Amino acid sequence: MRHTISAACLLIGITTGAQAAVLFQTQAMPNVSPFYNDAFWSLDGKAPGVVPTSGNTYVNDNPANYLTRLSGPFLGDSLTVTSGASVMWKGSTQTVDLIFNGWTGTFTNAQGAPSLNGTITGTGAMGFTVATGTDNRTMRLNSQLLAGNTFTDITVRGSTSLTDFLSVTNGSNVFTGTWDVDTITLNGTAAGSLGASSFNIGSTGIMNFDYDFANTSGTFEILSGGTLLLDQDLTFGSAKFGTTDVTAGTYTMAQLDSTFGIASTYFAAGSGASNTITVVPEPSSFALLGLGLAGLMVRRRR
Question: Cα(39)–Cα(48) distance, rounded to whole angstroms?
């Protein structure tokens, strides 16, 4: 879609006895085990440090696109990743506290169908990329998006296979930005898991809400070719299908077609005939309308 993924700090921890240390990644991690040996980490960015262990903080701030591979348990307390560096989540379930700040890379699943647990916070736009390939690639985001994050966008992309997906499962997530679903499927599986957010669905993106979603401050836009599984009731401040804006009201699929000419091809198999999309303009819109009507009445009295 139109937004690039930026994100940036991952926190994961480790201990080295009495006092915690900050260790910096000194080189890109090759695609061989072990990924977490001391050759990759240093107190001064030069000399070898220690393998991630509880109590220490790890930082990948190298602008030369150094890669941190998360494969197997990362035992550190925190891992910070800044602009130019990158992270690969390689086929294993992780429990990690992540902080993304100003990152301009991708958080990629390179293998399997892992789950990510822990917490996520930070600033800027954050992106999850599901790697393409002949095998199915999926990601399950169990981590909690913490209050205080200022993420503007979370982008979901990968292969166009319908079996590739990102499932977001934590019902306590705080996110007021936009989910950009470029390709594959985004599943919001638990009530509250998608936050109080907006949605941009690309021409090969698929959106699936597994709970009734309501955010009258949010927007929903889907390009021609994109797909929505409408089997829940959805409420937004505005909605747009292709180039067609949906005006205020509540509509079933059939009513969207008869009222606006929105074709059934926007809706995935399994969509419910009685499930609805409701558009509720923000109070400010109603206030402006009220002022306009009041002004008209004054003119007529004169």
Answer: 5
Say if residue 287's pLDDT is above 60.
Answer: no
Q: Is 302 exposed, middle or buried (0-12, 13-18, 19+ CB in 10 A)?
A: exposed
Two tokens, residue 194: 């998608």
pLDDT of residue 234: 98
Q: What is the DSSP letter of 30?
A: P
- Joined tokens for residue 282: 């923000």
Take residue 73 and report the two structure tokens written for it: 């348990």
129 alpha carbon, distance to own chain's centre: 10
Torsion of CA 185, 105, 27, 24, to 10 degrees: -110
Q: H or E stretch including 278?
A: strand 277-279
Q: Is the peptide bond before 73 cis (omega within 30 degrees of 0)?
A: no
CA 165 to chain centre: 12
**Binning pLDDT at 50, 70 and 90, where does residue 250 land?**
very high
Q: Residue 100 and residue 249: Cα distance in Å, rounded?
A: 38
Q: Where residue 33 falls among pLDDT bands split at 50, 70, 90?
A: low
Q: Can you read off the two tokens belonging to residue 133?
A: 């390939």
Write phi, then psi, for 18 (nearest 5 degrees). Answer: -75, -35
The residues facing 115 across adjacent strands are: 140
Per-residue pLDDT tens digits for 169-220: 999 999 999 999 988 899 999 999 999 999 999 999 999 999 999 999 999 9
